[in-house]
Amino acid sequence: MTHFQSKNGVVTWNDELQSVVIEWKGFAYGQEFQTILMKGAELLKQMNGSKVLMDTRNGSAIKAEDKVWIGEFFIRRAFESGLQYLALLQPHSVVAKLSLNRTVEGLGTLPYRQESFTEWDEAVRWLTNPSPLLSAIS
Question: What superkingdom heads the lineage (predicted)?
Answer without folding.
Answer: Bacteria
